[in-house]
Amino acid sequence: MGPRFHGREHFAPKGGGGSYRLLPFRFGQLDLRRYVVMNDVGEHVVLAREELVAFARHQLSPASEVYRALKVRHFLFDADSECALDLLALKYRTRADRIADFTGLHIFVVTLRCDHSCHYCQVSRQTEDKSAFDMSREHAERALALTFRSPARSIKIEFQGGEPLLHFDLVRFIVERATALNEEHRRDLQFVIASNLARITDDMLAFCKQYGIHFSTSLDGPEAQHDAHRPLRGGKSHARVLEGIRRVRAALGHDAVSALMTTTPSSLGQVEAIVDEYVRQGFRSIFLRSLSPYGFAVRTSLVRKYGVDDWLDFYRRGLAYILELNRRGCAFQEEYTTILLQKLFSAQGSSYVDLQSPAGIGIGGIVYNYDGAVYASDEGRMLAEMGDGTFELGHLGSDTYEAMLTNDAFVGILQDTLLESSPMCSDCPFLACCGADPVFHQVTSGDPVGHKAFSAFCAKQMGVMRHLITLLEDDPEARRILMGWV
Ligand code: SF4
Ligand code: SF4
């Protein structure tokens, strides 16, 4: 009887240097000493310059560590790599799968009325008495019919405004109708209300409990920071949102409410206090979000009061503080970082709508506005309020589902948002972790692609990716914590 296991020599790479072939990859400088190489599925290796040169010239020794690292991550294949190409193709298909599974997120703007007047508000919110800015039942019915035309297995209906609780009768109507329609369609159906929670009532909470509705709210940090940019008639927006969070948790469970923060100029010096506020209020994560150039953020010039480098400093300090909290035993995550880690390490990548190629507009989410207009993204409707209808797909009163999703202008923009064929992006090492933001580029540079050398979006992505990969490479303790977030 022969040996049951092969000896070491069986697993040793065959042939000498030069006998391997390269698989597709992009590379770029990480810092003064090192380069990062990344492939289409987010696998990456950090190399010294001479290692990169030797790799590209087919001069790496099969016995070297670098060779093994590049081989297991699909950057090269040799005579022993029987299924390397098939495996890489399978990984690519898995990540692209969500394109066929469109559209998962359906945003219903049930009213533009709002009781707040936030300085950075991205929508053209209206005062509470203007019912002309409410969605009608006819438009809601029509939007629901379109919602269930989407092939997506999971459908999330998100109510936005203005303040959706000011038009809760329509929220109730849509939830009940969607639930009834889903008896036939059998999708995994979820509901979320984006609300400042100032007007929440017991009656609303009882309804939300009956239908498993969750909330997403805004919390910008400690009281002074939050109240500085979120004026509410009678004041005390911070106190009202904390009370709302407490009531939602008591009625629906601890995880039934999540919160988002917006970085204003006055946030920049106090990221630790903002993170502490999230920890104090029992949240397990924070999304360090920069301001977007839409609506009141532009009208009040708030968006011009800090630049990408200021935000990157804020982000790096915030992440360092969050990692320190984790080292001290407090499990807490930064969500933008988690999305990028998913793109680096998870087989499915990330479904985050704002970082997709082609862009997530229309594919990831669609917006039914209060007036019946349909937009390819939430930012697209904000841009329309500023007078630019580039991302309008059609109207609930006159257009069919097919006409809206195959309209030439929309399909043309989608084609332009494929990073693989966008100038600069096509050569960028971070492509697999990035996405297209056509609305941002339309508003900042006048076309959906933009010039990436002058793009704040691009500068932010590059800054965050370089920082994250450096942490993963150079700080084993940070790496251990970050890998626990994926
Ligand atoms: S950001 Fe939200 S809560 Fe504030 S004014 Fe705009 S719609 Fe209202
Ligand atoms: S936007 Fe910038 S960071 Fe993103 S893929 Fe394009 S060049 Fe790279």
UniProtKB/TrEMBL annotation:
Lineage: superkingdom: Bacteria
SMART domains referenced in this protein's UniProt entry, alphabetically: Elp3
Cofactors, names only: [4Fe-4S] cluster
UniProt keywords, alphabetically: Iron, Iron-sulfur, Metal-binding, S-adenosyl-L-methionine
Stored Gene3D superfamilies: Aldolase class I
Residues of the Radical SAM core domain: 95-328
Pfam families (alphabetical): Radical_SAM
PANTHER family reported for this sequence: ANAEROBIC SULFATASE-MATURATING ENZYME HOMOLOG ASLB-RELATED (PTHR43273), RADICAL SAM DOMAIN PROTEIN (PTHR43273:SF8)
Entry protein name: His-Xaa-Ser system radical SAM maturase HxsB
UniProt organism field: Pendulispora albinea
Lineage, broadest ranks: Bacteria, Pseudomonadati, Myxococcota, Myxococcia, Myxococcales
Gene: hxsB
